[in-house]
Amino acid sequence: MAMNKAEKEYVEQLEAQLALRHTGAIAPDLRPLKLETSNNIYGFKQGNASVNWNRPMKAVTNRVHHGTFSEGNTRPLRPDTQGACALYSSRLDALRQTRYNLEQSAAAALRQIDLEIAEELAKPTPTPTGA
């Protein structure tokens, strides 16, 4: 049986509430700084954790530089970015770490709002004048 518009909206609200769960942090498992050679390592770089989050990207790194790949390209976008970076061996781990970072950022923002709400509640209620 097909859902009507109100039912679809309700299910979407429930699914959004279920998204409020905690993901554990995941450390990158590809670390080029420990390599004795300058061979390239291919993996995934976590996305930026913000409301408009960026998805993890394929990346390459070695002891000297790193770069990310755009969709469908076989060459890094910026292969000359200096410094090595730790990568994830799977896109799944990079996505999980991106989610964890976004959870932490959202929790900090929600905490700040809660503090401001508590501050407002602690203020004396003004009495109406002219009543």
Q: Mind explaining what this structure looks like?
A:
There is one protein chain. It is elongated, with a radius of gyration of 23 Å. It contains two helices and four strands, in the order αββββα. The chain is α+β, with helices and mostly antiparallel strands and 131 residues long. The protein has one domain. It has a four-stranded antiparallel beta sheet with strand order 1-2-3-4, with no helix packed on it. Helix content is 35%, strand content 12%.
How many DSSP E strands? 4
* Total discrete domains: 1
Q: Pick out the low-confidence regions.
A: none
Provide the structure class. alpha+beta
Average pLDDT for all residues: 79
Strand order in space, largest sheet = 1-2-3-4
SSE blueprint:
Elements: H1 5-18, E1 41-45, E2 57-61, E3 65-68, E4 81-82, H2 91-122
Antiparallel strand pairs: 1-2, 2-3, 3-4
